[in-house]
Amino acid sequence: MVLVYVMKREYLFPTLVIALGITSMILHFFLFERLESVLLMAILLILGIWTIIDFLKGVTGASEEIVRVLMIFVGGVLLYFGLHLECILLMVMFGTAELIEERVKELAEHGLRKTLELMPRVVRVIEGEVVAMKDVGDVKAGDVVVVGRGERIPVDGVVVEGEALVDESAITGEPEPRSIGIFNEVIAGGLVLSGALRVRARVSGPESTLAQIVKLAERYKERKARIESIVHKFSRIYLSMMLVLAAVVWVTLGYYKALIVLAVGCPSAYLVAIPVTLLLSLSVYARRGIVVKGTRPIEAASKVKVMALDKTGTLTLGDLFLEKIVILDGRFTENNVLAYAASLEVHSTHPIARAVLREARRRKIRLLKISDVMEVPAVGIQGKTLDGRRIFLGKLDIMRVKEHLPVEYTEIEGKTIVQLSVDDRIAALMVFSDRLNPKAKSMIKELKKLGLRILLLTGDKISNAKAVADALEITEFYAGLLPEDKVRIIEELKSVYRGRVAMVGDGINDAPALAASDVGIAIGSLEVAGESGDFVVPAQRIRNVPFIIKFSRRCMRAVMENISIILVTKIIALVLGLLGLLPLWLSVAVGDDGGVLLALLNTIKILRAPMIFSSKS
User: DSSP assignment, residue 473?
Assistant: First the structure.
């Protein structure tokens, strides 16, 4: 394992420092002082070359470079005054600390990519009458893959044959296995506990939900939390104070105790432990199927006090079905109306579009060619047929046609109703029904337990909004909102709750409100919602919304605890060192390396958070 590390530049220099330090220690005990001095000078030279290379490549910040320069200075002074053993122990401790820090950083940064290990490398694909073995990267949309008991589903897709019990906890955080059957959608990474499936891939292997989670998280991980910037600024001020203190101590108490101040006062512990804590949290979110765009949203989510939620596709399943078509113009039949509507909606991703197209497929409706298609969020979609007819499908003022309905108004009251107009004349009404997400009520209860003020914002009519609000025990709701209305409400909330407003909604119509909020949580497929919000939660996984708030609070609490741990260990080591109770190398071991190790041990509890939260949910 050590040989593998040495092959990497990040591990090469600290490994050399440790190896030469241990060799120097052996020479010291056998009294080879001249050779020992040569090796110590070689260590200091290696540290200098290491610092210059990293500086030229821009892989370290100014604070990290100053830390190494201080170590070179302290080591050089010890060597000059003949304190060889102290110099050796200091260099070995420093090299060991750097090696540990680099390893922990690598584990944190690659934690996201390790999520991809849930994906099988080779899959079985049906080709004609035979089953062929293929690399998962070669699987294309439309291919049918075979998944047996004990295997992980390699692609996002739809089950075309078989039944199985699937454990998706590694991807979604849901502790209960899901019963999967024909026509059910599945996501890559789920483990088949029993049964077998044939899955038609919806996208190619590299474009699966799991792969996109990692891709998006990697893209945005450089967005740093404000606390990281504060720590870097603090470390520079802290270091300046230590330099001044070291100068005073040199004059009053001598060079040796001044070197203790310099060595213990290095801010490297802060610069390692805090970013690593936040980076580890990104991998925890990824294992729950949540994309986080950098560490900045984690800090923001920990402060949230009010949360606004969209209705359709968030609190409801968003999987509308066409309940009935009400003909208002006798020139049209239901199939005529459905043909016009489906021909428009094939250009849309709205939940109504999916319901229309699903019914059109069921009735085997032939689509028309439509040009000049334009969709206006929260209003509707329009276009023109080849024979010049203007078609519009969208919002309706039901009171305009209430008296002319061929059915009782109570039959469609409270439902989602859109009008289909042909050449500005209403041809028919299309009535859709939606169902509450079965997990919405428990989600709202969890959010309330977290002390959040909950609001419902929807573009739907007031009767539908009230029905959902009453069912979920939400006391505040706003209906009939356009996207700009939602933005206005979010801005008003932000003026009261400064930096503490979250918005939860889909990544399409709610994109402006998500962008306006302090924390945007986009619900939906990664293809659509991937560019919206600070957090992206796959569709139908709203249980993860309370987890985002709970875990961000836990993470930021760990950050503050780590800052306190490091500060206390440094003060203890500094006081004991100045009192002469600890030698220099042991002061460094306690105050710098000890602080880092304690902070990292404290950070480990973050990795247990998903299990804790799942058991409480």
Answer: T
371 vs 513: CA distance, rounded Å: 30
The model's confidence at residue 287, banded by pLDDT at 50, 70 and 90, is: confident
Burial of 4 (0-12, 13-18, 19+ CB in 10 A): exposed
Q: Crossing angle of helices 440-449/544-578, nearest 10°?
A: 30
Name the 3-class secondary structure at 83: coil
Task: Give the Cα separation of 207 and 192 in Å (integer).
Answer: 21
Contact 590, 573 (CB under 8 A): yes
How far is Cα 257 from Cα 248, in angstroms, rounded to an integer?
Answer: 10
How far is Cα 522 from Cα 291, in angstroms, rounded to an integer?
A: 10
Calpha distance 329→420 (Å, rounded): 10
Cα(560)–Cα(552) distance, integer angstroms: 12
The answer to whether 337 and 358 are in contact (CB under 8 A) is: no
Report yes or no: 501 and 306 within 8 Å, Cβ to Cβ. Answer: yes
Beta-carbon contacts of residue 556 (< 8 Å; ≥ 6 apart): 227, 298, 299, 302
From residue 3, how far is each of 16, 22, 93, 99, 107 by CA, in Å?
12, 17, 20, 13, 18
Specify whether the CB–CB gap between 443 and 543 falls below 8 A.
Answer: yes
Calculate mean pLDDT across residues 278-286: 79
Pairing of strands 191-201, 144-147: antiparallel
Question: Phi/psi class of residue 237: alpha, beta or left (left: φ > 0; alpha: ψ in -120 to 50)?
Answer: alpha
Tens of pLDDT, residue by residue over 164-187, are 888 776 555 455 677 888 777 787
Q: Is the pLDDT of residue 307 over 70?
A: yes
Percentage helix, strand, coil for the chain under 3-state DSSP, each rounded to 5: 55, 20, 25
Instruction: Flag whether pLDDT at 444 surpasses 90.
Output: yes
- Compute the half-sphere exposure of residue 276: CA atoms within 13 Å on the CB side of its CA: 24
d(C-alpha 313, C-alpha 113), whole Å: 29
Tokens of 405: 């309905």
Over the stretch 201-259, which tens digit does the pLDDT of each residue have?
887 766 666 666 556 555 545 555 566 666 667 767 777 788 888 889 888 888 888 88
Q: What pLDDT digit, counting tens, does each position of 520-541 carry? A: 898 865 544 455 678 888 766 7
Q: How far apart are CA 321 and CA 589, in angstroms?
A: 66
Q: How far apart are the first and last CA of the chain?
A: 40
Q: Compute how many other C-beta atoms are within 10 angstroms of the C-beta atom of residue 105.
A: 15
User: For the segment 458-497, what is each residue's pLDDT rounded down to a tens digit?
Assistant: 887 787 788 889 999 999 999 888 778 888 999 999 999 9
| Residue 611 neighbours by CB under 8 Å, 6+ apart | none
